[in-house]
Amino acid sequence: MSKLKTVEEVLPLIRSGSTLMVGGFGLVGAPLTLIKGLEEHDVRDLTIISNNIGEPGKGLGKLLRDGKIKKAIGSYFTSNPEVGELYNQSRLEVELVPQGTLAERIRAGGAGLGGFYTRTSVGTLLEKGKEKRELNGAVYVLEYPLKADVALIRAHKADELGNLVYYKTARNFNPIMAGAADLVIAEVDEIVPAGSLDPESVVTPHLYVDHIVKATVRIEEVLNNG
Amino acid sequence: MADLSVSDKIAKRAAQELRSGDVVNLGIGIPTRVTDFVPEDLNIHVHTENGMLEVGPSPAADEVDPNLVNAGKLPVTEKIGASYFHSADSFAMIRGGHVDVAILGALQVDQEGRIANWAIPGQTILGVGGAMDLLVGARKIIVTTTHTTKKGEPKIVDKCTFPLTGDRPADLIITDLCVFKCENGRLTLIELMPGATLEQVKERTTARFEIAVGAKELKP
Question: What pLDDT score was predicted for residue B220?
Fold first, then answer.
């Protein structure tokens, strides 16, 4: 069965109350076409796992402004002050996670691990509630994996099987999110025939990818127009 | 050379700490400026936590690629030998001790050299990013910061009022007034920046600090 889908075909797979992983570092490498689809889609109470919540009114920032996000799990929200404002008004739940811990929790979620120990956050407010353990003379905290119902990711090219290659720093969280969700929808700039990607260059093997959607929204448009 | 801005003076001084072959991670703000002051014959390898090694200088306006950015989301370029990797690999490099020097900004630094740079309670500064991981994993930590806030409040303080980024102290603190070394839980002033006086440092610092014998530029 073909993995190639339209945005209209995949949007109904995203339901209110779902937990979504959304790739990207700010808007770079974010699945902007799928996010734009979500703007029109009737969905609420989303839990979003993403490094940032876009930028003010842009990307995921638009979904936040439209009141579709219940909880944000990420590492850096300073660049979208609306996250902090809503959080301070208790209108948004926020789980702030150090970026390396966020990435590794996502990776662990896709790798079948029960958790891992890291020194990151020891001695800070973010160690609160975490199990601590001394290993080889240093204190570590236990971190648990992150999983999601759906991952929305962005890649550069997909072949028809769903093998993915990425473009420069637009890679970021996308490959690890591809492993950590029950359903993975990849938005790509270009779809090529099977056999036309160099197997050595494939970053995300096709077994991770359920659906492929052609990107129609370019980052330049979102940066310039909002 | 024209007069440097305060940020550039700090960045220029930080660049002197780098050695050929260093893998260097630069935080947002003043640290990003450091590469502008690295001599061309000094071969450093800039790592950015959003997934790239061998980050090059910012491009000309007509050569900007919006999908090629540093951790501050500013456009950058590729140097020869560049590579890209995903976020989990990027932080494995950081926590795993493969980054030699991290240059970080700070909201406050305490008298043991510990940094607060990720949150101001009640405000919308709510972003730890990679700072805690860098503090845990980089071999050497250099803090670059203005000596006081825009309102003139000290940033090198006896005790941080903002939440700490970790329990590991920085190795070096570079401000527009001076350079402090952090060793054994103590700050030592090792250098005054050109034009700065010891009185200014004392006036604008609430952290306890010692003064190194023979500190450069220091006049009794």
Answer: 45
- Smallest CA–CA separation between B102 and chain A, in Å? 15
> CATH second-level architecture of B6-216?
3-Layer(aba) Sandwich (3.40)
Reported pTM: 0.96
The amino acid at residue A156 is H
Q: Which residue is associated with the tokens 């979904």? A: A63
Q: Which of B51, B66, B163 sits opposite A171 (nearest CB)?
A: B51
Q: Which fold has domain A4-114+147-225?
A: Glutaconate Coenzyme A-transferase (3.40.1080)
Q: Give yes or no for a contact between B11 and B19, defined as CB atoms under 8 angstroms apart.
A: no
- What is the C-alpha to C-alpha distance for residues B60 and B76, in angstroms, rounded to an integer? 10
- For residues A117 and A112, what is the distance between their CA atoms, to the nearest angstrom? 15
Residue A132: enclosing H or E segment and its boundaries?
strand A132-135
* 3-state SS assignment for residue A49: strand
What are phi and psi for residue A29, nearest 5 degrees?
80, 10
To the nearest whole Å, the CA of B125 is away from the closest chain A CA by 5
Give the number of beta-carbon pairs within 8 Å between A and B: 153
Q: Which amino acid type is present at position B137?
A: G
- Interface TM-score (ipTM) > 0.95: yes
Q: Do A220 and B66 lie within an 8 Å CB cutoff? A: yes
pLDDT digits over A94-136, tens only? 999 999 999 999 999 999 999 999 999 999 999 999 999 999 9
Domain boundaries, chain A: 4-114+147-225
Nearest in space to B134 (alpha carbons), one of B48, B12, B20 = B48
Q: Which two tokens stand for residue B219?
A: 């006049």
Give the strand pairing for B186-192 and B178-183.
antiparallel
Q: Could you tell me the two tokens for B22? A: 């260093």
Rounded distance between C-alpha atoms, residue A91 and residue A43, angstroms = 17
